[in-house]
Amino acid sequence: MVREFGTQLLPGRVDGVPKQFDLVSGDGRIAGDAKYYTAVNGTSLPPAKFATIAEYLWLLEKTKARERFLIFGNDRRVPEWWLDRHGDLTSFTFYYLSDGGVLERLN
Asked: What pTM does this model have?
């Protein structure tokens, strides 16, 4: 993510939100969280994880960060399924980081 945004991102808080995000710039203008989800039994849509994604987007929404994002690892189908169903509800960026270290923007 350092290459993507050109600045160091560390765990931290953003003013007004009582949650430590996984990736925050020193000035608080960039905030994101990392998720490592998989499909239920390796094949099915994960409704509980969908709720958690919505929760983190809501928390990010409350920040005044200029750039807000979620980055996913493990099973790229999970964020793709979420975006297929609810992608029109968010303007935040979803990324997928493969096991090989390739970063992809999903929306």
From this structure: 0.92
